[in-house]
Amino acid sequence: xxxxxxxxxxxxxxxxxxxxxxxxxxxxxxxxxxxxxxxxxxxxxxxxxxxxxxxxxxxxxxxxxxxxxxxxxxxxxxxxxxxxxxxxxxxxxxxxxxxxxxxxxxxxxxxxxxxxxxxxxxxxxxxxxxxxxxxxxxxxxxxxxxxxxxxxxxxxxxxxxxxxxxxxxxxxxxxxxxxxxxxxxxxxxxxxxxxxxxxxxxxxxxxxxxxxxxxxxxxxxxxxxxxxxxxxxxxxxxxxxxxxxxxxxxxxxxxxxxxxxxxxxxxxxxxxxxxxxxxxxxxxxxxxxxxxxxxxxxxxxxxxxxxxxxxxxxxxxxxxxxxxxxxxxxxxxxxxxxxxxxxxxxxxxxxxxxxxxxxxxxxxxxxxxxxxxxxxxxxxxxxxxxxxxxxxxxxxxxxxxxxxxxxxxxxxxxxxxxxxxxxxxxxxxxxxxxxxxxxxxxxxxxxxxxxxxxxxxxxxxxxxxxxxxxxxxxxxxxxxxxxxxxxxxxxxxxxxxxxxxxxxxxxxxxxxxxxxxxxxxxxxxxxxxxxxxxxxxxxxxxxxxxxxxxxxxxxxxxxxxxxxxxxxxxxxxxxxxxxxxxxxxxxxxxxxxxxxxxxxxxxxxxxxxxxxxxxxxxxxxxxxxxxxxxxxxxxxxxxxxxxxxxxxxxxxxxxxxxxxxxxxxxxxxxxxxxxxxxxxxxxxxxxxxxxxxxxxxxxxxxxxxxxxxxxxxxxxxxxxxxxxxxxxxxxxxxxxxxxxxxxxxxxxxxxxxxxxxxxxxxxxxxxxxxxxxxxxxxxxxxxxxxxxxxxxxxxxxxxxxxxxxxxxxxxxxxxxxxxxxxxxxxxxxxxxxxxxxxxxxxxxxxxxxxxxxxxxxxxxxxxxxxxxxxxx
Amino acid sequence: xxxxxxxxxxxxxxxxxxxxxxxxxxxxxxxxxxxxxxxxxxxxxxxxxxxxxxxxxxxxxxxxxxxxxxxxxxxxxxxxxxxxxxxxxxxxxxxxxxxxxxxxxxxxxxxxxxxxxxxxxxxxxxxxxxxxxxxxxxxxxxxxxxxxxxxxxxxxxxxxxxxxxxxxxxxxxxxxxxxxxxxxxxxxxxxxxxxxxxxxxxxxxxxxxxxxxxxxxxxxxxxxxxxxxxxxxxxxxxxxxxxxxxxxxxxxxxxxxxxxxxxxxxxxxxxxxxxxxxxxxxxxxxxxxxxxxxxxxxxxxxxxxxxxxxxxxxxxxxxxxxxxxxxxxxxxxxxxxxxxxxxxxxxxxxxxxxxxxxxxxxxxxxxxxxxxxxxxxxxxxxxxxxxxxxxxxxxxxxxxxxxxxxxxxxxxxxxxxxxxxxxxxxxxxxxxxxxxxxxxxxxxxxxxxxxxxxxxxxxxxxxxxxxxxxxxxxxxxxxxxxxxxxxxxxxxxxxxxxxxxxxxxxxxxxxxxxxxxxxxxxxxxxxxxxxxxxxxxxxxxxxxxxxxxxxxxxxxxxxxxxxxxxxxxxxxxxxxxxxxxxxxxxxxxxxxxxxxxxxxxxxxxxxxxxxxxxxxxxxxxxxxxxxxxxxxxxxxxxxxxxxxxxxxxxxxxxxxxxxxxxxxxxxxxxxxxxxxxxxxxxxxxxxxxxxxxxxxxxxxxxxxxxxxxxxxxxxxxxxxxxxxxxxxxxxxxxxxxxxxxxxxxxxxxxxxxxxxxxxxxxxxxxxxxxxxxxxxxxxxxxxxxxxxxxxxxxxxxxxxxxxxxxxxxxxxxxxxxxxxxxxxxxxxxxxxxxxxxxxxxxxxxxxxxxxxxxxxxxxxxxxxxxxxxxxx
Lengths: 872, 872
What we know:
The structure is a homodimer. Chain A is of the alpha/beta class. Chain A is built from 36 helices and 33 strands. The first copy, chain A, is 46% helix and 18% strand. The longest helix of chain A is centred in the C-terminal third of the chain and has 25 residues, at 586-610. Chains A, B: Its cofactor is Mg(2+). Chains A, B: InterPro entries: ATP_grasp_subdomain_1, PEP-util_enz_mobile_dom, PEP_util_AS, PEP_util_C, Phosphohistidine_dom_sf, PPDK_AMP/ATP-bd, Pyruvate_phosphate_dikinase, Pyrv/PenolPyrv_kinase-like_dom. Chains A, B: Substrate binds at residues 564, 619, 737, 758-761.
């Protein structure tokens, strides 16, 4: 039988798998000689075994409990001088929905008197006893916590908790026991060993509580890890004003500023801080109350930071002037703090720059790049909802999509305010600067679709009442009518009345070329410089215009990974494209193509100049042609109602001819190039001539939607002929965006000099769903059900899409060792996906210009990560 | 250096890879001691080497030529007694577009006189010489053959060829040389060795002729096989009336009847038979002309059949009473002949029943199952077009799709007649019994779409003139007006005036339960019985009604592999489905579901009874809900023009809400089941209750469109609960029809008891094209370009879709060894695909009832094939 129970003296921080995060860190602190109450950890392995057969390692626990009793000189349940313990869960990853803590185990009607006697504080003893029954009832016996809260409130009758006396609490114990009896038909167990065993079982069982299961599914945490249980001798912060409890950070986790940061509450236990029953005081004021403990705490925090080489987050208790450490862990922090602290620790010699880069995530960098509301603006805070999609948006409130579209068309900036959104609101969401809803969580339609669009969104702002018919919403006493300006902060969830000034991100200004303005930007600068030095992946941008290309280059792009030529067919060129589509003879078609060619050429010259000396990948036209024509339904109605012109009749014929059931799976990409004579040839000629004119052009011609090598061969042959005629050189490659392309990559590589993974389409086809349709119709439900933890359009689905990519990389390279490999789907700018691209050995990622810095950082982190570093 | 040239005495029939089919069989006959003119074969390996470096093995050829000269006692180009040779290509697979034959090599202005002297026939000598120049000019020098034909016609001036004399042919030689000079600016080469070398090079080069390349691409013949060249001493069938040439089969290749079958032409060379310059005579009459040669020929044919153990197809020449064998091969035959001959050979002890089964293909069986036009009907044959899609169809000629739809709605059977079809004709093609076009080949829109639909089609009937405006077509003198009845035979391409009586296939009558009616049906019976005994794959049917199920069972189905429950939602139940979709409250929705449940239950009872004791796989509803509502465009127009009712308004709102850009990739299948509460539960309950009522029901519940195991788990959990409530057992499994399902099959198998490959959708998603859209828009072009040789919807794409299937089979079985594996896409009835399913180890295939016998046969063939048998 394995060893199922570890004394704190036996563990260390590297045993998180076995002891959980809490247990491992308690052991670490114990071994550092810090004042940790004695205790032991029952391992995750014991949990797994229990979940299989329902047996807990009772003997081993008894042995360790006996040791604990010996160390403390007290016995559990001793009516004279009882030992009390806490039972706390602690998995490898902290997990909402699991049972957390039961304090004061060991109390019963007899031992409560011993505790009173020993502590000389009868009130404290009965308070502790009622806390045990309350927590035990709620978490172990699964009784609705409200019942206990109500009984307490009734007893207090409006008084402060400090105003209650021993008799009050004794009465409360009686009430609580009655609640247990009524709710569960059993007595509160007065055997301390039974209390402990039930608590341990409850912790283990809570591993499979529905919320915990869902959370694991969403976060892709393996279901079979199990949780550990920590049994710790109780120390008391509620023994009087010389006692207390606190939480602290070794630096400011919000700003990253140096210096400790925390809260302290006198004469209280840990859960009182969370419950907010009284106001806490800043940690610094502990110096006035108990200078010795304060200095000791500072020493310990400095030691912990040095030892963990990172920001630490601690919990402590002072019992009658004696400091006890109850927990430590590496602290969570804001994005700004992450960068500042990482660089501070480098300067303090605690970590090197590699490590600093690894500790700053691309998501954090992205947060720093959003514009934000100016500090110090005095706008009324209307409410706070969920921060569903980050950014800062200002606009007139509107209450219907139609109105949003109408005003946006006039150039008015609007915020779409709805109780909740549905697929009909898509056009309104596109038209609006931001979206505010009063209903629905982070997986609601509004949230899912807004994130997909990169649109600022606050959802589930439950305090507001939206009255779409009356064109207004109310927030408390404030009424906001249509047309009134509001400001929503998708990063914090705040909603303000009026226009809050928006300030550009100083980090973006730095990327645009400004010198580092403050400590934060300097930190970003140092991190980015080191990441760039370390990364293996190149970073390119997706850009269709010279302006975007120039911006991307300033942001550090090393070329263009995707230029969508169809974007050049819009605007005032639409007429030419229409001519092309409506052409009835080869001559008419050719004349439309001839007219487009010089325009395309000029576009390409602009791109080549902006990216002079760097590669520019140009994708030949991809979408189906009817996308350039009016909508079938609109046009049918127009013609049927007699509102159409002669031209509309002709257009309708063409639209009907080109209409497809599933245009995404229709005549587009390379298929279009093979079916419409001269189309691809025109584009290739325009590229070739532009390249001849731009001295340092490095053109790469990309064929979209290839599923079979024969398609590519056909197009390639024609393209090579044109390149030879014009006398320029260009790489010819293909998108890998159809599953079959990945599955036959070995064949396709024979005819392709590069692959670029089009992971948007590849995701759609691998899963068999169209993003336009499904984000609105069932993604929210799927996120709720935990079918995926994050939309596969946001972060690459490793098991499905990723597997196809691996196949294509391996077999493509086997067929052509110098095959260039990149990605140009939106995943190219997603941190987790960039790491995956590094892992599978791509040469570059390409993303929107704004995401280029994020990709650079993540590429650096991926390259600098050592095995075992947890960089998630 | 490898041996590049083989004398006929050195080869044998098993060396087809190296010597090509023709060379290997010539060698085989030589070694059998049959009278084959001496000669040698230059190998395919020599061809490959030549194609790489342009060098032919001149020395080795010279050595073999010298041996040939010695054997014949004549020298090439000898002015006194010249040896003549033929140069003929011969690849492993015969291949249109490659150079075929040059006869009479060795003639020039000098040796023609020697030939005249030796043969004592000056006319013959000059005729042979002009033939050389003609064939050489056409095939080696690539001069338009028409030029030579025209010169010959001019010379004949209406006379028979036998009326031309030596002087005529001498003049023709002069003309032909002039043609060479004019067309190519060079002299016809008079050095016989140069003639031979140029001919050999021309054969090798023709391996890469565009038509040959295209053919290989379409037929998936490897591009690097190369062709062999046979150099054979000439023998002459044109030396007088005691000479001649013929082709023969050892049995009738049309009916399969015993006894030789062939044609003979006196005083002629082989190409004269093909050119049809005079009428041939039946081979039997050779007995009267040359009884010795005839008897010798019969002996040889019997020997060949015994040796090859199959129908043989031969070419021979008689030179002044001496029989020479020029070629043999296993002969092509009709479907009926294939079955009859195979069984005859068994009865004759030449082959065993395993071999007989292997020699009868599923395609051949399918041909025998089509209804056909009665023999002996005396309808006017209007024309013959291409046999684009088999079957026999009779109906009134109509000239527009609108009219076809209109008449079909009135129950009139129509044939749609068009110059060519386009996507607008889809509805008309669906409405018609058959399609006839005057333009376009087997890859035209009409042909591709009709084959996809299994609709009878004759295309490219170029002799008819379609005048759609005047509502008529003409065929020669006959005018066919709209409404007149025509009959089209998609198997032969024939088009008749009037209604030709259609007779059911006796083979189908046998499968329906009739006893074998004739030798053919008896043969089919024996083949099928043995195939059933040998096969490992089970065969199930796709059926949605009790009637279909019963029929499928008669045809040999061993269960239902796919019942599409959505088909049960049509007809008069549409109203209930509409109620379900329009439901605004959970109560309304539940009441619609409650109304559907007993109907579904009754359907399932019917199926379970029809398949009593056999497994019945029921797929829960798959298509998106808007498929049950009116079309968006139609409804929009109706409402906009004021023609709509109040209900139409409500419907339009629902249709708009449910509208999807790409419904195939939208809210359907398991997604629908997870999003619409109660829908799947209703279906599962109906299945469970039906199964409880049918004692021998074996229900299998199949979840469509699963892409992630979590989806399946969610549905499975609910289904298991319902099954337990009702108290019946059923397997729960999933379709594998989304690429991701195959890629994560190991995970999905944890929650699935069976997989059924839905290869229709899997093909669509793996290639990224929607069948509805692409068959019409670019499949014809793709077939023309050789991007695929056969539509991947007809025959499984092994490299792409097939690879996903292999992954799913391997990883699914690894995760769950007793996983049941089947296929229910239309490929389940395609012969080549059935073989693939056998190879990858599926347990069953499921196909439409009519294809069940085909699948049974192919499953048998696959199991009985021994390594190396060529069963394609």
